[in-house]
Task: structure prediction
Amino acid sequence: LCPCLIYGAYIFLPFDAPLLPTVSARLVYTLRCATFATFPIVLGMIVSGISRLCSSALEPFGELQREVEIHRTYVSQSVHLFILYFFNMAVLATYLPQELLKLIPLLTGLFAISRLIFWMSYAIGRSFRVFGFSMTFLPLLAMLLWNLYGMFVLEPQNLLS
Result:
C-alpha cells in the first residue's frame, strides 16, 4: 500500500521540489519537511499530558491506567521512529537526483499520517496496530536499504567524504 500511495501522490500532486543544487540546501529542505513529521508526536504529548492529568490515579508516580499507558507508549515509540526517519531522510536527500526530491515531503506526509493511524489503531486494540506500524516501518526500512545501497554500491569512493 505504501508504494502505491507514494507513487500516486508523486504523479498526481501538483508541486515540485525547489532547485537544490548543494548538499546543505538539501539538508535544510529535509529539516524543514521533517518539522511537519513532529506534529503527531507533539499532539501525542499533549493528549498524554491531558490524559495523565485527568486520570483518577491517586499516586502520580504509581501504576498507569491503560488510557495513559497507550499515549505514553505511542509518544515514546514515535520519538524513536522519528529519529530513525530523520537520519535516513537526511542521507536520502543527499543521494536523490533533483527530479526525485519531491519524495522528501511525500515521505514526511506518509510518516505523519501513518503515525496517526497507528495511534488510532493502538487505542482500538493492540491487534490492530500492525497496519499503522507497518506503514511507518516499511518505508523506513526501504529508505535504509536505499541509503546503504547508495553508500556502498553507487558511490563507495565518497563513503567517508
In short: The chain has a mean pLDDT of 85. The domain at 22-159 is CATH 1.20.120.550 (Four Helix Bundle (Hemerythrin (Met), subunit A)). The chain has six helices and no strands.
